[in-house]
Design a protein that fits this description.
Radius of gyration: 43 Å
Helix content: 40-55%
Strand order of the largest sheet: 9-14-11-10-15-16-17-18
Number of helices: 37
Strand content: 5-15%
Shape: extended
Largest sheet: 8 strands, antiparallel, barrel
Length: about 1050
């Protein structure tokens, strides 16, 4: 297609594997620029013949379009090549028997096609087919395709110069085939490029084709080198400290191949490949330079030719670690690999290869001398002495080195030697024995498989195995109080609307209401008409209807269990009739309760929220009252056994007590509620490692990474687990994935201006003291100094009710067809509810390592290990915390961070290693002296050491910061207890009130009560102690102070009762 208009006749020549398959007939070019060749040719593919499966994998069909010029008299026809195209035969090895492609036609330089506009470039439509599949079903499913791409060699020796005789830069890798056979992949004709711009990304991979007239045809279709961050590579030189060297080396002198070689592996070869990698993880890739002498005019003997033209120099080797290909799901290795001087003994020691691959290829490369196989740099011993020209070249290179210093990797400085450049291949001798090491040379390579050698377990298989270990929990029976609650809400809504209508009636007809006796029907009808008019005019009628709508929808869903559409109109009308009758009956019940029955005073129901229970459990843990903490955790579970977070918090409590088996039961119970819950999977994996159930742990971690591939903590914990199993390859891959995710998240949040990343995102929001304060109410009501009590809201005064009220409500119900839920909150009938709160004197408290997740305002740690530590500390998984901290210590740039020392200090507090904790906090204060969490932790340390003076200073400094510490609740509690001990009762009272405002509990109100008692504010003290007793009626100290207050007030009987309760619950 699109052949230049002045071309009259063309033909197509088809070549494969160096052989011409045939020429098409001469075809005229049509006016639209197309030519129909209708040419068919074929070749035989035979495993033992010249065209094997290996050839099909890596050699394309070459098509050349040739212009046939009009011949002159008595002369032969002249032909001019116009362009070339290639057809990749790889689909034949992927199970296809036939495929059609449009191969781009690349112009031959100085041909008529070259002058065409790029958009007008031509192409050849080619159909490829086989009589039968090249591969059987077994070969297709169990075989594999190996692709090796050699990109470039960077930081090459100084002796590689473009001047002088031409050279062929080669590299070779042997791939094991079936049995003991080896299949060499030879990369030739590397291009030496001088310093300049870097190689672009992406850039096309190239075929290994010879005798090509159109350079563009070397590009493999749809195959590119895309590059990527150094940290994501699998090879060497991928650390942060190598980055500068890599950047500079890529713009310096280099050898570029950009060549891809493919190799089909039959099932036996795949088994052999896997076996070879298991036996030896390092494979050698040999590199060399071969001098290619120009054609001489005189005759030269064959021996001289072999000596001059076919010796190799700079024989080096790079070691490729192939072990990552044995990791589940891994199909590719790409990275930088250092090049060393080839030495037989060292190569054998590392790769078990007994001799060089170039020895096996010496016939193909026409190598006749044994000189190249000596260790080090190849040369003939008879010509080992340097010539005068070589000395001059040495001086020149020395000057170049002094003027242009190159960047070298760390290894490059260990053995710096000057080496000579051969000016003549007959008189060559390199003095340096380590030119590649000195130069810091490295190869960029990619090894890729079509299918992973070890397939990754499928998500469905992982889920099935998790369910085999932890069967899904059967659903709990539906709540029985749903319908009852819906009817109560409807009653409340009807009562509220009725009260509003009564108020409206009083405004309209207040003076017309009779003192006694019935109203005549005519007057009643007039009042109904006027009431309807006023309600519609003001919009109140519509408002009343909307208020009832949500309550009616709840009755339909909860009582009638109707959540789907009706199949017929008759069924729908029958349901509406039934619903209307029920709603009218319930409306009359509600109105009768409002108008004619005495309202019983509401019985206050004390029901603690889950946030309060979590706070009380945390306080009990801090006070080492583990029995009480267990009670609170179990109360949370009793309230809602389907809450996953409740089970996770209870499991964390069991880990604190080192009851790993019970913790495992809790985490598995959480996982049974939701088999896809990532935090539950991770914690199940953690406790499985603690119990040395490593096979189960691997399933849990792998499932977490599969279900949530964007979880940084999941990948990091997987890496720690694999490292524990001495599986360093998979550990490194997991860490690399976690780092890549963290880098992407930080970059995304940096661009979007979002808040900092916190490891708390790994778990569901757990109730903390800050949340408890919001839900439980800030300061509970108390008299005088403590503030007013919550006032009761009047529900409406009873009065004379006009008969039109029932009519109006009934009319409102009749006016509906289908009901749409409206999110209208029902007004809460107020009652006198007192908020909970608490704290005692100096407490012998063991502060937990995991802080309360309250503020998190400080900049979080920005490494995968510190984010994982933050997650693990919340669940008291100290074993994994130590592993993560060890990695964090090794990955520091410029010394450990404040977050590292703070986390280590918390673990030391758990072990009561106060001296080590003090050292860590000293470093943390030095790094970040304005971090409130550091000062809070230091205060806890001093408090546990009973150095109350120093603790008070640290706590006062903590609460003076603008930002709160993560565990500010416990800071208030301990600071208040210190004030009580030092008889600073006024400051103690204010501190405990701050604690009440932040997170009210029994201990905070107890502290307020004690301070008020010491200040002789008996009324306030009694109110505060009553609040404390409401929240926890088993606290002996609360009962004791209540007894003292009753004695002070002369209430002997009440004092005696309080005293008995004090003895009952235990002092």
């Amino acid at each position: 297609k699109t052949i230049k208009g002045d071309v009259s006749a063309t033909l197509v020549r088809v070549e494969y594997n160096g052989a011409i398959l045939g020429d098409s007939s001469k075809t005229d070019v049509l006016p639209d620029g197309t030519a129909n060749y209708n040419f068919m040719t074929s070749f035989e593919c035979n495993p033992d013949g010249p065209n094997s499966l290996a050839d099909v994998a890596q050699k394309p069909v070459l098509l050349t379009v040739i212009e046939v010029l009009q011949k002159e008299k008595k002369q032969k026809e002249k032909t001019v090549p116009l362009g070339q195209a290639v057809v990749d035969l790889l689909p034949l090895l992927q199970g296809q028997c036939s495929f059609k492609v449009s191969a781009p036609l690349y112009a031959v330089p100085r041909s008529p096609l070259e002058s065409l506009h790029p958009e007008a470039k031509g192409g050849l439509e080619v159909t490829v087919c086989t009589e039968e599949p090249l591969l059987s079903a077994a070969q297709l499913s169990n075989g594999n395709l190996l692709s090796v791409t050699l990109e470039a060699a960077y930081s090459v020796p100084e002796a590689f110069l473009p001047s002088g005789p031409p050279h062929n830069y080669m590299a070779c890798l042997q791939v094991p085939a079936a049995g003991e056979k080896e299949f060499p992949l030879l990369f030739k004709n590397g291009i030496l490029k001088l310093a300049g711009e870097k190689e672009p990304f992406p850039r096309p991979k190239k075929w290994s084709l010879a005798n090509i007239m159109a350079p563009g045809v070397l590009n493999i279709p749809d195959s590119f080198i895309v590059g990527g961050p150094y940290e994501d590579e699998d090879g060497e030189l991928n650390k942060r400290e190598d980055r500068e060297f890599r950047i500079q080396a890529e713009s310096m002198k280099r050898i570029v191949w950009d060549m891809e070689k493919r190799c089909y592996l039959d099932p036996a070869a795949v088994v052999t490949l896997q076996k070879r990698i298991t036996q030896c993880q390092y494979w050698p890739v040999e590199v060399c330079r071969m001098t290619v002498a120009p054609a001489s005019k005189g005759k030269t003997s064959e021996a001289d030719k072999g000596d001059e033209d076919k010796q190799i120099f700079f024989h080096g080797v790079a070691y490729i670690n192939m072990e990552p290909l044995l990791c589940p799901g891994v199909k590719q290795i790409r990275g930088a690999f250092r090049v060393f001087t080839y030495q037989d003994n060292k190569v054998f020691e590392k790769t078990k290869c007994q001799h060089s691959v170039f020895r096996d290829l010496r016939t193909q490369l026409h190598l006749t001398k044994e000189g190249p196989w000596t260790p080090g740099i190849s040369t003939s011993l008879s010509k080992a002495f340097p010539s005068k020209t070589q000395k001059e070249d040495k001086e020149k290179i020395t000057k170049d080195k002094d003027s242009n210093r190159r960047v070298r990797s760390r290894e490059a400085y260990c053995n710096v030697m000057i080496f000579k450049v051969p000016s003549n291949p007959n008189n060559s001798m390199i003095l340096s024995s380590q030119p590649y090491v000195e130069a810091g040379t490295f190869l960029m390579m990619e090894i890729k498989l079509d299918k992973a050698l070890v397939p990754r377990r499928l998500r469905e298989d992982l889920t099935r195995r998790v369910e085999q270990m932890i069967p899904p929990r059967p659903p709990l029976p539906p709540r029985t109080d749903g319908a009852k609650k819906a009817v109560e809400d409807y009653h409340n809504r009807v009562t509220s609307i009725a009260v509003s209508i009564l108020s409206e009636c009083r405004e309209l007809f207040g003076k017309q209401l009779p003192d006694g006796g019935p109203t005549d029907p005519q007057t009643l009808e007039e009042q109904k008409r006027q009431l309807n008019f006023e309600l519609n005019k003001s919009g109140k009628y519509f408002a009343f209807k909307e208020q009832l709508k949500y309550a009616v929808v709840k009755i339909v869903r909860e009582k009638y269990q109707k959540t789907t559409a009706f199949e017929t109109q008759e069924e729908f009308q029958a349901f509406l009739s039934e619903l209307y009758v029920y709603l009218m009956d319930q409306m009359h019940i509600a109105l009768n309760q409002l108008l004619f029955e005495e309202a019983a005073p509401p019985v206050p129901v004390l029901r603690m929220t889950e946030e309060q229970l979590w706070l009380f459990a945390r306080e009990a843990e801090v006070n080492k009252d583990y029995e009480l903490a267990s009670v609170y955790h179990q109360k949370r579970l009793d309230q809602d056994q389907r809450n996953i977070q409740h089970w996770l918090d209870y499991g964390a409590f069991r880990l604190l007590l080192e009851e790993t088996t019970k913790a495992q039961e809790c985490f598995r119970q959480a996982l049974s509620l939701d088999p896809h819950h990532i935090q539950s999977l991770l914690l199940c994996g953690v406790v499985a490692v603690m119990l040395q159930h490593y096979a189960e742990a691997e399933i849990f971690f792998e499932s977490a990474c599969c279900l949530e591939p964007s979880s940084i903590v999941a990948w990091t914990l997987s890496g720690l687990f694999y490292e524990l199993q001495n599986n360093n390859i998979q550990a490194e891959m997991a860490f690399r994935e976690a780092k890549k995710l963290l880098k992407a998240q930080l970059a995304k949040e940096g661009e979007g201006g979002k808040k900092q990343i916190s490891a708390t995102s790994v778990r569901s929001p757990s109730p903390g003291p800050g949340n408890a304060g919001q839900n439980a109410g800030a300061l509970a009501p108390a008299k005088r100094g403590l503030g007013p009590v919550w006032e009761m809201v009047n529900s409406g005064r009873r009065g004379e009710i006009p008969n039109c009220l029932c009519h109006l409500l009934g009319f409102t119900l009749c006016g509906w067809g289908l009901f749409v839920p409206s999110l209208v909150s029902a007004p809460a009938l107020a009652s006198e509810i007192k908020s909970p709160v608490l704290v005692s004197g100096p407490m012998e408290i063991h502060f937990l390592a995991a802080p309360s997740p309250v503020s998190g305002l400080r900049q979080p740690p920005c490494t995968i290990f510190m984010k994982t530590v933050e997650f693990l500390m919340k669940f008291n998984a100290i074993q994994f915390v130590h592993m993560a901290l060890a990695h964090e210590l090794l990955s520091f740039q410029g010394g450990p961070s404040c977050a590292y020392y703070l986390a280590l200090a918390r673990t030391c507090l758990l072990k009561e290693d106060f001296s080590k904790c003090q050292e860590c906090l000293r470093e943390a204060v030095r790094i970040d002296p304005v971090n409130p969490n550091v000062w809070a932790q230091k205060g806890h340390l001093c408090y546990l050491k009973r150095d109350f003076g120093e603790a008070k200073e640290c706590y006062e400094r903590t609460i003076s910061f603008v930002e709160d510490a993560a565990d500010v609740h416990f800071v208030y509690l301990r600071l208040g207890s210190i004030y009580l001990e030092e008889k600073e009762f006024g400051r103690a009272k204010q501190t405990y009130l701050l604690a009440c405002k932040n997170s009210a509990s029994c201990l905070t109100w107890l502290g307020v009560g004690i301070a008020c008692y010491r200040l002789e504010e008996m009324v306030d003290a009694e109110d505060a102690l009553t609040e404390a007793n409401t929240l926890n009626n088993t606290n002996a100290e609360v009962w004791g102070y209540l007894a003292l207050i009753c004695l002070q007030g002369g209430r002997q009987r009440e004092a005696e009762q309080c005293y008995k309760y004090t003895l009952k619950v235990g002092v």
